[in-house]
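To assess whether the prediction recovers the assembly geometry, we first specified each molecular entity separately, as shown.
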Amino acid sequence: MVGDPIADYLPTFIRFLLLAAAVIGISIGVHYVLRKVFHVRREVAIGYSLITPWILGFLTFSAVPLVSTFALSFTDYNLQQTPSLVGVKNYDTLINKDVNFWPSIRLTILYSVISVPISVFFSLMLALLLSKKLRFIGVYRVLYYLPSIVPAVAVVLLWRWIFNPDVGLLNTALSPIFNLTGQSPPDWFGDENWVLPAFIIMSFWTALGNNMVILLGSRKGVATDLYEAASIDGANTFTKFLKITVPMMTPAIFFLIVVEFASAMQLFTPAAFARATPAAGRFMNLLIYTYGFQQSRMGYATALAVILFLLILAATIILFRSQARWVYYEGQEK
Amino acid sequence: MSTTVTQTTASPERVPWSPLRVRQLIGKVAIYTFVTALGVVFLVPLFWLFASSLKEGSRIFDQPVEWFPANPQWRNYPDAWTALPFTRFLLNTLFVTLVPLVAEVFASALVAYGFARFAFPGRNLLFMVMISTMFLPDAVKLIPTFLIWKQFNLIDNYDPLVLGSLLGGTPLFIFLMRQFFSSVPREIEEAAIIDGANVFQTFTRVMLPLIRPALLSVSIIGFQGHWNDFLGPLIYLNSQAKYTLTVGMYFFTGGTNERPHWEWLMAMSTLMVLPILILFIFFQRYFIEGLTSGGVKG
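The predicted structure of the complete assembly is given in tokenized form:
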């Protein structure tokens, strides 16, 4: 055995137990103080005391980091000296001088904007197809879902190989087409023009099953009586699909797009493992890692993180604003 | 919820070859052909992964692809396993997966119970805040969180990957479990309280067993998350002996050696898939329930 596992785990485990005791202690303390000092009702005191762990976690791991990210982004900080305030220099350098910045923005946004609608659209089609009463439906569901349980690490290693320009599975399968048209097969991760399509194909393979399962769940939630009423009114299958099925599924579609978009913008593991040519740009999260943890430019990296955050926030706000136009919630007039 | 939608096309006549029946039959055949073909396309990469893990290194790029290696090289597995200290990596991964998993599921359940059952001032506002943190990108918290752990001198320890789980767990888990708690009839708790149980006893003995499906679903989501986590271990762990499987794999692929052993990488990838696959085979229902209950009612 390399190293001494027990010596590595034990201190952490002891601190884990101490922290657990502390969290329980604070929760009970909250209850005690609320009851004895502020004389609040028992139910109220218990409620606050139960959510105390979350409040502690929220402050430590959400509120404080969020504020510090903004603060740090205006500083120079290399982990050795104390951070020094430099105003908007980081942002200025990023936007105006950094050759990695715009390619990174371009790649990240294009990837998210293209891959998410594609995978949601095809997941929807597949979910509708599989929601028909077919035999062996469970088998197909498992079949499509399987790729999404494969760890991202394994997925990328696998696809790096599938995308191999000379001996990869994809170019081998496509070779008749290239022979016919006389084109040379693409070098996927090795060619800056093909990096984006390569990432999109790879994400499609992983995300399809996952999204399909979510949409299938929402498809099953559509109440049967709606279809019966529509049939009585003489609606045909296609009308029912357009006017009932799709509108009733829009909350799930909306949810998927919001979540998938945010996670696509933050793509990291595949970006790191793919070792795609840097000429195509690096995904923003990978660039943050490179600046912050490989080059120890923490202030500069947080400025980039703030920009990524603002982009995701803007997209989320736009999506939520668009909700009124196309997302249908039950009990709401249309 | 298993309300399947009844097909409302006119019930097929018993006449063997009515045009309607023929059309339905053709439609069915088309659908089956399509979903099967797509399924094969989806599975080929996985099968290829496994087949390649059994080939000789020198023959791995041979064309045409050998789908069933005539001479399976099972020793690729032990060879790859011992090329780097993977036994240690596995232990490390189990440590940073199981310890936080137990803590975060339990903590999330407590918080969810608080949100579901106790009316306190500001509850809805706090719940909204909690939901909105689900949408807060990890990227924006990454560096300050790293600096917090650095303040405590805990870099290159497992603490950053383990301790956070004690503080209220994960918003998604709280959200899912609150939904389950809300659907439990209040009479059950009242009966427990009449029997003299305190809040904690009611919670552990009565409520937790009632939401077992939700506990399983979030445990599976959590297990996958920790098992596959790469960025966390990558930034917090520096000494090789402390690496998790994902980080070990990362350095396995990009090591200093001139040409990576693809057959080893494929073998290790297959092994990484295995635990999740086994979980999936046994708990398929909970994988899918966790996903759907999160998405649909949201």
